[in-house]
Each structure stands twice: as C-alpha cells, then as structure tokens.
Write a structure and sequence with these properties.
The protein is mostly beta strands and 377 residues long. It has a single domain, classed as AttH-like fold. The protein is 4% helix and 53% strand. It has 3 helices and 24 strands. The protein has helices spanning 67-70, 130-135, 166-171; strands spanning 23-34, 40-50, 76-83, 89-95, 109-112, 115-118, 121-128, 144-158, 176-193, 196-200, 207-214, 221-226, 228-231, 242-248, 251-252, 255-256, 260-267, 270-275, 284-291, 295-303, 307-316, 321-322, 338-353, 356-373. The strands form 3 sheets. Strands 1, 2, 3, 4, 5, 6, 7, 8, 9, 10 and 11 form an 11-stranded antiparallel sheet that branches. Strands 12, 13, 14, 17, 18, 19, 20, 21, 22, 23 and 24 form an 11-stranded antiparallel sheet that branches. A hairpin with a 2-residue loop joins β5 and β6. The longest helix is centred in the middle third of the chain and has 6 residues, at 130-135.
Length: 377
C-alpha cells in the first residue's frame, strides 16, 4: 500500500562533506483562489539552505563577479517564493547562517527573521522592488511583494526506499536525494501578492510538499505531480489518489545512471511504484522532455513486473518560469529550467497479472506541478 511517512528524511542533512558542498531544500506548492474573483492562482514556497560550514556574517552569493577572484562558494538560507501564470514571478530573500535557527536530528523547524517553516506551518514575507532586483543580479529573481501564513497537513507520502536511507545518507551515495513526505498535502491559509489577497483551501489547493538534498543537481531534471485527478472511464474524481515522478540522470557514488525516474501512482489507496532502485521489480523507463515554441511536453512510460504507467503531459510556456538556483559549487548550470504549476495531461495505468495486461484507469490530470531542464541550454 506504501504511503510511508518518514520525517527523518525531512531533517536538516548538511553534515560532513555536504556542510561545505551541499544543499538542502523544502518545497511546497499549491493552488490558491483570488479572494475577490475566485480565480485560481498557483504558488510555491521553498526554504533552500547551502554550505553552512562556509558561513560568513552576511550571505555569500556565488554569482557575484568577485567570486571568480576569491573562489568563495555560496552560503545562505534562500527563502524562495513564486507564482505561475501569465505574470509568473519568483522572489528571493537571503539570510546569513548566524541569523538562522535550524538544528540537526529534529523534525523540521527553520526560522530566520519573520520567515519560518515546519512540518505543519509556514509564514513569512519577501519584498523587493524591480530596481533592487535589477541592481542585484546575484539575487537571481524579480521584484514584488509576497506575504503568506499557511498551515500544512501532509496526507500521502512517497518514500523512495533504501536509496535515501540513513546508510546511503552517510555515504552521500547519491548526488541528489529526494523524499516527498507530502506528495498530497492539504494547505490552508492566506497570501497577499503585491497587495492582492488569495485564500488557500484544503479541498481546492491540490497541494504538494517534498525535499531534495545533496551535493549537486541532476541534468536532465524532471518532476511531475498532481492530485487533481478525474477518471475518464467513470467520470469520478479520484479523491484518494496522487502521482509523483522525479529524476533524470542520477549519480550514484559518482557513476551517472542515464534517464532514470522514481515514480509512484497512489491510486485510490493502492501504490503503483516505478523505482529503478528496487531492481527486483525490473523497472524499465522511457521518457522524453521537449520544448516547442509555446509548450513544454513530457512523455513517460514505465513498466514493472506488476504495472505499466503511460504519462502524456504539457504545460504552456507563458504560464511557466525559468526557475533559478545556483549549485553549492557556485556554478549556475541550469539556465533553462522550466518550472510550472498549470500542467495538464492524461495518465494510463495498467495492471499486469497472470500474463495479462489490463487497463486499470485512464485519468485526466490538471494543476500539475512540472519541471524540465538540461545543463547548458
């Protein structure tokens, strides 16, 4: 049945080598409603920490021109928030480590100034003008103001298995670890974007929460998830379902494994997992990511000994962001990392039993969180 909660994987992880070359982030996305019009507006909120052992009294930015001379690597907490749609934007606020409260081996509880995030709540405020953003390209964002106060209720987890276990954590075996404690999450609360109020409701937020950590990012970088799902066969809304796909080209102990994805379709209480690290399931994956003039397209087909999942998803580029991160080594290699919250698509889920393959359901998905990018583009 899966849906295994494991809050240890949401702990702060940057020990040993990762303290000098590592990142840890906690990501949340959801759909809110305009308080005046009721129109849907998707948002994301992320707390991203980097290189605590390289801390100085002020945040250290990796993209400043003087970094080429002094060789310093980035070190900070970046509180990153944004919104998708035709006026998509991302705002960043940076804190030095001395101004951050965050401890090892405890359930997530991070505070810096008036920004905070735990397993059950996040609040904060980011405000900078367009002029400030232009004057500081090292901030890697645009201008605007977002204030939020959101309760978090994580409902269904995607536990990737032994690949992110404490043993592999200690080895730093993977360059990029992943755990989705809340691949289906009910959010509630309010946001104010540039003075306009939005309301987040558990039943219409289609929320998601996960965590990534490691020493570097992956390329290609793929992520797809939604719990706004309706069966095309029965016409019924699937209230106890969510799918989650992530990965690209993971590195294990320095060796790149090409085009590998970790996926789970939690379908009405039963997990159909497609996980290359569970080798006994004989998981096979085919995927393509494509950028056209107007859209990003994802096609994924995964098969194990017991199931097949076929995914066909698209997101309109004018609703998406080119999302910005710098790696712990100070390089910004992902310069066309498309990121959206308005994806749509169709998923076919098949069951394999006794030598027969049967279509379990064909599902229409909306409000899909989605990401695709490759280095050097």
């Amino acid at each position: 049945m899966a849906n295994i909660s494991d809050k240890q994987r949401d702990h702060f992880m940057l020990r040993g080598p990762l303290s000098k070359r590592g990142y840890d982030w906690w990501w949340h996305n959801f759909t809110a409603e305009d308080a005046q019009t009721g129109e849907q507006q998707p948002f994301f909120i992320e707390f991203f920490v980097c290189n605590p052992a390289l801390a100085e009294d002020v945040p250290v930015f990796g993209q400043l021109p003087q970094r080429k001379q002094d060789g310093k690597k980035p070190s900070y907490l970046m509180v990153k928030v944004g919104w998708w749609g035709e006026q998509a934007g991302q705002l960043h606020r940076f804190f030095a480590w001395k101004d951050i409260s965050l401890v090892y081996d405890k359930d997530l509880d991070i505070t810096a100034g008036d920004c905070s995030c735990s397993e059950t709540h996040t609040k904060g405020r980011i405000s900078l003008t367009d002029e400030e953003a232009k004057a500081h390209p090292e901030y890697m964002c645009n201008g605007g103001t977002l204030e939020w106060d959101i309760a978090i209720d994580k409902k269904i987890a995607f536990h990737v298995g032994y690949g992110a276990s404490k043993f592999f954590q200690r080895l730093n075996a993977f360059e990029m670890f992943w755990h989705a404690e809340g691949m289906k999450t009910a959010y509630s609360g309010t946001l104010q974007l540039n003075g306009r109020e939005y309301i987040v409701k558990p039943e219409t937020c289609y929320g998601y929460a996960d965590k990534n950590w490691g020493g570097d990012f992956t390329s290609p970088w793929v992520w797809l998830s939604s719990n706004n799902l309706v069966s095309k066969i029965s016409g019924k809304r699937l209230n106890n379902s969510v799918f989650n796909i992530g990965g690209g080209r993971p590195k294990v102990l320095g060796v790149a494994l090409n085009r590998k994805l970790l996926s789970d379709f939690y379908y009405e209480g039963k997990s159909y997992e497609f996980n290359f690290s569970k080798f006994w399931t004989l998981c096979r994956t085919e995927f393509t990511g494509q950028e056209t003039e107007t859209e990003i397209l994802w096609r994924v087909r995964q098969e194990t000994t017991s199931a097949i999942m076929e995914v066909d998803i698209r997101c309109i580029k004018k609703d998406m962001l080119l999302i910005n991160y710098e790696a712990p080594n100070g390089l910004k290699l992902h310069n066309r990392l498309w990121n959206g919250g308005n994806g749509t698509g169709v998923i076919k889920l098949y069951q394999k039993k006794g030598g027969k393959t049967t279509l379990l359901d064909e599902i229409e998905a909306k409000n899909i969180g989605c990401e695709y990018g490759e280095y050097g583009e």
